[in-house]
Amino acid sequence: MDNTNSGNAFSNFINNKVLPPIMKFVNTKPVKALQDGMVYALPFIIIGSVFLILSNIPIASVAAAVKASGWSAFFNQAYTVTFGIMSLWAAVGIAYVYVRNEGYEALPAGLTSMATFLLLQTLNIANPLVATMGKAGTGITNAAGKVVMSGADVSSNIDKLPSALRAFVESPVTGVINITWLGGQGMVAAILVGILVGWAYSSMIRAGWKITLPEQVPSSVANQFTAMIPAGVILTGSMLIYAAFSALGNTDVLQFIYKVLQTPLQGLSDSLGGALVIAFLVPFFWFFGVHGGLIMGAITSGLLIPNTFDNAALYHAGKLTVANGAHIVTNEFYNNFINLTGSGITIGLVIFTLFAAKSVQFKTIGKIELVPALFNINEPFLFGLPIVMNPFLAIPFFLTPVIVALSTYLVIYFGIVPPLNGFAAPWTTPAIISGFLIGGWKMAIWQTITLIMSVGIYFPFAKKYDAVLTKQEAEKEAAEAAGDTATN
């Protein structure tokens, strides 16, 4: 009785004290805009991942043939303008969703956010010659990737030029957009820009800062005049901010945010502690009936997706190792390990229902869950078994993703399996297939092992719960039989 009261008290504390402020935060306008706005970047991330694999097929002989044929450059072009500029898509999508949720014409806000995001960066790139020079330089390569002039040779030949000509040749290339800041390194800046532009744009429209044309003017034209004042104010303010950073700090906003905010936050998300916290909180929220995947996805995507991008860049360069800076915890670590076969990694329960369950309830729900589980969906178990608020299954539900996250982190850290390659496999991709796509055959084998771990962890708890259900069903059947006998 005391245990029951303690359990109810804890549940009441979570539901009344812990979850309300969390849900209030998750349902704020900025977080909703972030959650739904990032979705607009996903098609480009997934399509770009395909081009990434095609330009770097994990079979040496095939990869060499593709590169020699010139197709690698074409695939890389497609990758660059999809996955490679995902922060730009995010900046547009977040501002768009923010203003759309406020009930206003949203596309002009998305385009204003894109212009702002570009305006806040320095429009130049380092001269390619700089990276080729010196003993540590890459040298000059031909189309097939063969070095035709070493870094030392490049330096010695440039040094023979007159100083004025040498300075001109080595100066940055201006009047271009640096795509470095349109990829993963600009993601936190893109999120901030999208949210701030969405808020500012909506506030000005709400306050009546707009040009209103006569009713006879077509709405398609009138809407653009409506956007003119908010867009003009935002872009003018952004220009002044850019000028201040350039004059006072000799930098730009995107680089500043990357160094001050994004780098520390990515490091935190990529730590073992970060992985374990994420792995625990997803089932924790679900246990109390709140969508843990959506909550943690909204909070972590802005950091884990850049981790994916960084790994993709290293994979593209043939340098995908932890020693070279590859991240262990990426968005695919979250989707394809922490949430494998659904939140709580409930494949162990599916296996139990197929081969060991005796209760009708377990068998029935298991048959319903079998196909969804293959695509990492487990709501039939969460609410039908149920797992939500079920003390019999709480321990394996919390424990399995934590153990899988811990062990997966360690096998990557110690080089037993390679880091995830940056391929953005959709979260519904079946297990083992997703493992192969995101990390090759070794990762597919490891993913298989994690499925076996789920079976081992869930089995004793499921067996105990199944016995309780079987007993309840037998008692109900006996009671019904006794009732029928009394009636006759």
Automatic annotation (TrEMBL):
<dbReference type="GO" id="GO:0008982">
    <property type="term" value="F:protein-N(PI)-phosphohistidine-sugar phosphotransferase activity"/>
</dbReference>
<keyword id="KW-0472">Membrane</keyword>
<dbReference type="GO" id="GO:0005886">
    <property type="term" value="C:plasma membrane"/>
</dbReference>
<feature type="transmembrane region" description="Helical">
    <location>
        <begin position="106"/>
        <end position="126"/>
    </location>
</feature>
<dbReference type="InterPro" id="IPR003352">
    <property type="entry name" value="PTS_EIIC"/>
</dbReference>
<protein>
    <recommendedName>
        <fullName>Permease IIC component</fullName>
    </recommendedName>
</protein>
<comment type="function">
    <text>The phosphoenolpyruvate-dependent sugar phosphotransferase system (PTS), a major carbohydrate active -transport system, catalyzes the phosphorylation of incoming sugar substrates concomitant with their translocation across the cell membrane.</text>
</comment>
<keyword id="KW-0813">Transport</keyword>
<keyword id="KW-0762">Sugar transport</keyword>
<keyword id="KW-1003">Cell membrane</keyword>
<feature type="domain" description="PTS EIIC type-3">
    <location>
        <begin position="14"/>
        <end position="461"/>
    </location>
</feature>
<dbReference type="Pfam" id="PF02378">
    <property type="entry name" value="PTS_EIIC"/>
</dbReference>
<keyword id="KW-0812">Transmembrane</keyword>
<feature type="transmembrane region" description="Helical">
    <location>
        <begin position="337"/>
        <end position="357"/>
    </location>
</feature>
<feature type="transmembrane region" description="Helical">
    <location>
        <begin position="392"/>
        <end position="416"/>
    </location>
</feature>
<dbReference type="GO" id="GO:0009401">
    <property type="term" value="P:phosphoenolpyruvate-dependent sugar phosphotransferase system"/>
</dbReference>
<feature type="transmembrane region" description="Helical">
    <location>
        <begin position="39"/>
        <end position="66"/>
    </location>
</feature>
<dbReference type="GO" id="GO:1901264">
    <property type="term" value="P:carbohydrate derivative transport"/>
</dbReference>
<dbReference type="InterPro" id="IPR004501">
    <property type="entry name" value="PTS_EIIC_3"/>
</dbReference>
<feature type="transmembrane region" description="Helical">
    <location>
        <begin position="179"/>
        <end position="201"/>
    </location>
</feature>
<keyword id="KW-1133">Transmembrane helix</keyword>
<dbReference type="InterPro" id="IPR051088">
    <property type="entry name" value="PTS_Sugar-EIIC/EIIB"/>
</dbReference>
<dbReference type="InterPro" id="IPR004796">
    <property type="entry name" value="PTS_IIC_cello"/>
</dbReference>
<feature type="transmembrane region" description="Helical">
    <location>
        <begin position="221"/>
        <end position="245"/>
    </location>
</feature>
<feature type="transmembrane region" description="Helical">
    <location>
        <begin position="265"/>
        <end position="287"/>
    </location>
</feature>
<feature type="transmembrane region" description="Helical">
    <location>
        <begin position="436"/>
        <end position="461"/>
    </location>
</feature>
<feature type="transmembrane region" description="Helical">
    <location>
        <begin position="78"/>
        <end position="99"/>
    </location>
</feature>
